[in-house]
């Protein structure tokens, strides 16, 4: 297919924005979803500059009506949905588990877990009917290891990875693949909020064998690969992209 249709949630900044640019440069038609109209419309215009047909749709992934409408409007505009990158997420409120509350749990899980669930649900609704499609959920290396001071976030990413594998098994016989990318330290606002200071960020850098934090484009390229025919026999997998941080 010369111009696949790609939907990206949490598409306005960081990894989501990088994925939108990467897919647009590959000739895809791109729908970006987020909650800030001005930034979304500006990004769609930027994507069109690469020759892509691009649209911004305001949607809150925590609300099923929004997610249903997002997918339906994508179909109305382009007639199909070939790739979905579910990137919308939050680090919640970092801190010791003894400081967490029902409210901090709900705020994190509603976006990271419920938002992914609703997105996959409605993306599969369309892709299974088509008999094809690729879904890529954005997890974290915290999804398969622990992280002090990030208990709720870690738990939410464990849930995303388990959901990815279950959805992959359910969708396999309909020709739809479901995978996840698990980034390590990536140069985003979330990393700055997690580390808090330049000293802590520098200390984190020393734990990465390749000697640098990742760029959002590193994760975008992984998503483009998983969506491609080159990955046509890959489903139910978690692709770790972390500069070797979790290798030893």
By secondary-structure content and strand pairing, the structural class works out as alpha/beta
Q: SSE string, helix = H, strand = E?
A: EHEHEHEHEHEHHHE
Provide the spatial order of strands within the biggest beta sheet.
3-2-1-4-5-6-7
Q: Assign an overall shape.
A: globular
**What's the CATH architecture?**
3-Layer(aba) Sandwich
Largest sheet: 7 strands, parallel
Q: How far is the N terminus from the C terminus?
A: 40 Å
Please compute the radius of gyration using only Cα atoms. 17 Å
What is the total number of structural domains?
Answer: 1
Low-pLDDT regions = none
User: Which oligomerization state do the chains in this entry correspond to?
Assistant: single chain
- Into which percent range does the helicity of residues fall? 40-55%
Report the average pLDDT across residues.
Answer: 94
CATH class: Alpha Beta
